[in-house]
Give the backbone structure.
Amino acid sequence: MLQWLPPLPSNFRDALRAATEAPDRLERLASLSGHRLGFLETIQLDRAIGPIEAEARPGFAVVRLAVAGSATLDHLVPGIRVAGLRRRLLIDLNVGAYGQYRAELIDPNARLRAFRPKAILLSLTAQDVLGSVPLGVSVEDARAAVNRAIEDLRGLWRKARGEIGATVLQQTFIDTTHPVFGGHDRIVPGAPTRLIAHLNDAISEAAAADGVLIVDAARWSARDGLDSWFDIARWLQAKQEIAPQVAPLYGDLVVRILAAERGLSRKCLVLDLDNTLWGGTAGDDGLEGIVLGQGSAAGEAHLALQLYAKQLRERGVILAVCSKNDPAIAEAAFSHPEMALKRSDITAFIANWNDKADNLRIIANQLNVGVDSLVFVDDNPVERARIREALPAVAVPEMPEDPAQYVRCLADAGYFEAVGFTLEDRERAAQYSADAERNALQTHSGSIGDFLAGLGMSVRFGRITKLDLPRVTQLINKTNQFNPTTRRYTQDEITRFVDELGCITLRFRLVDRFGDNGLVSAMILRSVEGEPDAREIDCWVMSCRVFGRELEHEAMNIAVEVARCAGVRKLQADYAPTAKNGVVADLYGRLGFSRILDLSNGGTRWSLTLDSYAPAQTHITRVEDET
Amino acid sequence: MSEQEILDRLTLILRDLLDDDSIVLTTETRREDVPNWDSFNYVNFIVATEMQLGVKFKIGEIESFEKVGAIVKSIQAMIG
């Protein structure tokens, strides 16, 4: 369980006790939560976290999660809270009473409503949602039974999302049934195992349509074996469907989704070379001596890691290399005929003899991401220990000694958990290649003006539409630098802004001669109470990939025009400082706003009278999209 | 494992579970003798004991352990 995390320190009990009394209690507990905690240690650490206060501590965010279901769920609380701490989320939990989930979601006076959860996890038993279906039902009646169950669930999802305003996490159904016929169960429409398979398929479709997120307990119970996930004794004794011994893992599965929704998943996979991407040492064994690819079992194991990395790249994870090697040898190795990864798949490539912690900082810098976006995969325990010590924010999986287990370890850890797969994700790899070409142009241009003119940029803009929502949500939750207010919103909340009277939403795509940078900026202008002709820039985010292209100026030109058309005469905007958004401290000043107030949070309030706004001259032409 | 060795292991488990280092289990201890050892923590105690000692209690046993001594006996029967 939690095999990708480093083993528990031998002085766990003492460290826990010391942490409880220390002034930096949460930091110490967060550090302990990054270890391979067992069942009992998870309960101990959870107790040390104590009650969650409404106000977030610096460096931590509070998430209110309601858990509702048809089995006993209290025993899942420690695992969820500890997994939260592992990702610097303080999870305030409301656990529904046994079997009361319908009433809690439907009754406007239920305790769950008063709790105002941001997310609701539904952990239901198949038996409960399907009811009893006779073994001999026809195909049609079996389908109808599944459809009834799904429609019932969708009704609850609508309550949760529409009335409560919470994101829904639906757990897939665990098949705890026994064969009635044997293999023929797969053929008989009313056989319990077939019904549950059908139900899980139908959940995927409904979840895709309704924007519901999936906790795939069914897949994990198949991966680990039903005996680890379901213990009939615990069911009979306490009506626990999820076995207590997997509670630490279950908690991690839930929280990695909550974290993904908040843009906290990792973005970049940094790979070591020798004995990681291939067996042996390229420098000592020579290119012909390394173990890779077809023909040897170990070679195929290393190849499997490369192929997995390539899959991750296809879904938008950035790949980097960090190796202690002669740079020429490291580069040359990529021409080995058995290499699945090509040199062009690697966006940041560092091979030298320097400290890997320094190199990881450089890689993060080059990619314009934080070190907390990196996953560092290295077979060498000394290097892993060095990074954990020097850069605790980097995720460092405890790679197994056997390369055959590499992919499984990396995949199990769920570092790159995603709640969507956007067009931008698919194209990210191509975009990073285009970035390299742009950088080359910049190097060869005489001045910054020449460079920008040479890019041939145009901005495509319009109101935020349904199709834009997944990407806009991602951008709002992932952007740390160009984000003056750092307000995070769920997809449902953004949908509400789109429909809100008086609210102006805008999104911007930047295209240049090297390609489409995709949807790179979004802005939400909301009404100001008592000032009908004013709007406040509630949220404005821009991808760091397009910094220095004058897009903020052209976006403001557009925003002012759109606002004027809506009868607006004044814009106001706040800057709230964070550790990462210093780049926009003077954004509004540069855009012609006047500073009108210093805020108690150290931030500033700005104002712009539209009549006096002089549009900035930029190198970007405009194309308005039909919406 | 001797009776005392098992009692020591069970004592450590329950101390961790209830965060109470004053707990000392004997064969005569009943659940109601130990503060906070409620039914929820009883399930957790059974789970932790099964995991740490590599045993599996019968469903009927779990319901009927009156004193810790009975748990010790059951464990001895399973692991000798």
User: Anything to note?
Assistant: Helices of chain B lie at 3-18, 39-53, 59-64, 68-79. The longest helix of chain B spans residues 3-18.
